[in-house]
Amino acid sequence: MPVDVKMGTFWSLSFALTLGTLVLGSAPKGPWDSFNYAPASRTVWAKSIKTVEGTVHNAHNLITKTGIATLSGNQSYITLDFGIEVGGLVSLRFNSVSPSSGLALSFTESPLFINPLASDDSTESSADRSLDGIETLDTPLSHGLWSQPSYRMRGGFRFLTIVSTSSAPVSISNVSCAISFSPHFDDLRDYKGYFYASDPVFHDKDFLTKIWYAGAYTVQTNVLPVDTGRQVNIPRGWANNATLGIAGPILVDGAKRDRNVWAGDMGVSGSTMFVSTNDLLPFKNALATMFSLQNPATGLLPMAGPPLSIVGSDTYHAWNLIGTYNYYLYSGDETWLRGVWTNYTKAVAYMESKVDSTGLMNVTSLGDWGRLAGDGYSAPGNVYLYRVLTTGAELATYLNEPDLANAWSTNATVLKAKINEVFWFPSAGMYRDNSTTELCPQDANAMAILFNVTTSEEQANSITKGLTKNWNELGAVAPELPDTIAPFVGSLELQAHFHSRNDDLAMDLLRREWGYMLYTNISVQSTLLEGYTSNGSLFFRADRGYHFDPTYTSHAHGWSTGPTSVLTFYVLGLTVTSPGGQTWTFDPHTSGLTSAEGGFETSLGWFGAKWTLSNGGKIFSATLDVPKGTTGQIRVPVEGAVSVGGRRVEKDASGFVRLSGGRQSIMVG
């Protein structure tokens, strides 16, 4: 049944609580399934023993369901390695205890912070971001099954340390974790989409497939029951029983922390979710939560949902609106869009009200992804506004509001000219951060390409070349946040290189930045890091915008999952171009590869493709399988006559071939 949530007196929005989004088919089975990081069961056991200290007998028995291990002596401990990022409620069985036996648990994502006296940091529990401490089990311990209290659940960890807190021996068995994330999935591995390609350059030929699935699994760990948010301002320890929004399951930013809806993060994770699981209900619930908290007087949308409930960001306000467009594009859910349309138009009006006689938006609400500065007449803020206006015009057209669509489209055209007049920095060949600086930021330049603010192919190529000057061997260092590699903005840059058809640069960045994240031994090697410093460490310095210690870094952060959608949309080349996939494009970027295959699902059905290059890259062949009744266009990556189903077809002036839906075979060369 629909539920109405009313805020103030002038709007209401409806959203479905039903979990009926997971009723369509699954992705086809194939070798790609072996790269799916999601566990086969919602209850998981450790894969290996990482560390044993003190007097511990038969420690390796704990990687079985029935074997018994005994800890003897105060501070003796075992660290279990679950092999991947997990999260949820720990259970174990006490087989032998005495009245003076004691036991405690500690958790960490990174092996760097294995500690029998403390867990890694998830709570900001003090001004210096002290560690979370341990979970000490109530004494006296009792024979039989012990289960972790629900509020003490750890949202993300790979390593569990079990430590004896007394000199009396204690014997335990069957240590497991009941997965709490993606609660509406009976089978966490039941993806609706897939991707498969071999990398001929990287040291691991399966890298591209692995990183696609690492991004998909990261976002799965970021989908939470609505009552399992991170409590804030608690004096010590942690608690994960805060309410996250108006409905669940709900999409948040990270598994360990923040466990909170953040507007910007959805700009990446929403697309990841679409191409992998097509599980869009958590995306919708997150957006609906943000609209429910809109300021009724100004139209300002929050930067983060409850319990943080942070306001004060013009750029993250824009990400809410961009997310609305993305959700509608992927879902075709017109009923929901109409339900939030009054909120949406008021939010666009908020941004336009900040455009003054200069013709530019004046950014006064400064919160952002962590970058420095960005206030005033900034390039990022105005690029965001341009994207809001262009996508808003599309939405207005879909809802049959031509006057509004025309007004927003006209304003976007004027703004684009002004952005290029004020912020283009000819000597650098890039956009500068504002009209008085020579700093050319990663975010504004990447988004200018991605959102079509650039005016020519030459301008876009200049920007992509300029962005590479910020690279080191581990990725792209953001000039607007020195010493920091931020995969959120890196995800945007990755798209920008592909969008401008600088595929070699895109693949180079992908291998550097995401290759480091996936294979570094300081992380979980199954989900993706929130960020790191330019030398690869997890320390975010307080004078560089981030104010937390290295243990606070999230190792499963949805804003870092750009490669998952990028590999589908660009390398595979398949994307939807109107709501739900009524129209689509097949435009493979072969990117030095010889083949790729994959697909995704919408409410209309399956969208799949498989392509190969042969004869030294001169012959291109593909199979395209999209729903009947849809229409699309294809662009082939090699020169030559194009045949579809054995019949020669002609390209239009833009180099595209127009096709109707169905199963098609394509040959060039």
From TrEMBL:
<keyword id="KW-0732">Signal</keyword>
<dbReference type="GO" id="GO:0005975">
    <property type="term" value="P:carbohydrate metabolic process"/>
</dbReference>
<protein>
    <recommendedName>
        <fullName>Glycoside hydrolase family 78 protein</fullName>
    </recommendedName>
</protein>
<dbReference type="InterPro" id="IPR008928">
    <property type="entry name" value="6-hairpin_glycosidase_sf"/>
</dbReference>
<dbReference type="Pfam" id="PF17390">
    <property type="entry name" value="Bac_rhamnosid_C"/>
</dbReference>
<feature type="domain" description="Alpha-L-rhamnosidase six-hairpin glycosidase">
    <location>
        <begin position="250"/>
        <end position="473"/>
    </location>
</feature>
<dbReference type="GO" id="GO:0003824">
    <property type="term" value="F:catalytic activity"/>
</dbReference>
<dbReference type="InterPro" id="IPR012341">
    <property type="entry name" value="6hp_glycosidase-like_sf"/>
</dbReference>
<dbReference type="InterPro" id="IPR035396">
    <property type="entry name" value="Bac_rhamnosid6H"/>
</dbReference>
<feature type="domain" description="Alpha-L-rhamnosidase C-terminal">
    <location>
        <begin position="573"/>
        <end position="646"/>
    </location>
</feature>
<feature type="signal peptide">
    <location>
        <begin position="1"/>
        <end position="25"/>
    </location>
</feature>
<dbReference type="InterPro" id="IPR035398">
    <property type="entry name" value="Bac_rhamnosid_C"/>
</dbReference>
<dbReference type="Pfam" id="PF17389">
    <property type="entry name" value="Bac_rhamnosid6H"/>
</dbReference>
